[in-house]
Design a protein that fits this description.
Blueprint (H helix, E strand, L loop, with lengths): L7 H20 L4 H18 L5 H4 L16 E8 L2 E8 L5 E5 L22 H11 L9
Antiparallel strand pairs: 1-2, 2-3
Helix pairs in contact: 1-2
Bound molecules: zinc ion.
Protein name: Ribonuclease P/MRP subunit p21
Keywords: Metal-binding, tRNA processing, Zinc
Family: Belongs to the eukaryotic/archaeal RNase P protein component 4 family.
Length: 144
């Protein structure tokens, strides 16, 4: 696959909005409403065009209120133990919604597994790629 990235302009817009939110908070940490507006717009665009964002981006946005989550500023980050596993619990300070992520260095996200990559498999490659392409758009990392 590779080659031309589909929806390049949309990804550039997502990237711009995400970076703009970071800039706003870096310049004026009080101006969280504007950063939230940028992130909300970013999420709306991504949802409308069904674009997949990188987990590193997705994990820094609140699922409840679209705030940009920066530990110590707009969210708290705590380490917890549950069922013998370590979790990072992130709580948004605006809407108190929390998300938790498995904190295990050996854990690999499904999107990073070789079988998750289009055209990654030898053998029945063309068939699988065609079948997958019908259902889901390619999900490249958004340009930064
Ligand atoms: Zn929130």
């Amino acid at each position: 696959m590779a080659g031309q990235v589909k929806d390049r302009e949309a990804f550039q817009r997502l990237s711009f909005l995400y970076q703009a939110a970071h800039c706003v908070l870096a310049q004026d940490p009080e101006n969280q409403a504007l950063a939230r507006f940028y992130c909300h717009t970013e999420r709306t665009v991504a949802r409308r065009l069904v674009l997949r964002r990188d987990p590193s981006v997705k994990r820094t946005l609140c699922r409840g209120c679209s705030s940009l989550l920066l530990p110590g500023l707009t969210c708290t980050q705590r380490q917890r133990r549950c069922r013998g596993q370590r979790w990072t619990v992130q709580t948004c300070l605006t809407c108190q919604r929390s998300q938790r992520f498995l904190n295990d260095p050996a854990h690999v996200l499904w999107g990073d597994l070789p079988q998750a990559q289009l055209g990654g498999q030898p053998g029945e490659k063309s068939e699988t790629t065609a079948a997958l392409a019908k259902h889901s758009p390619p999900h490249p990392t958004p340009p930064r």
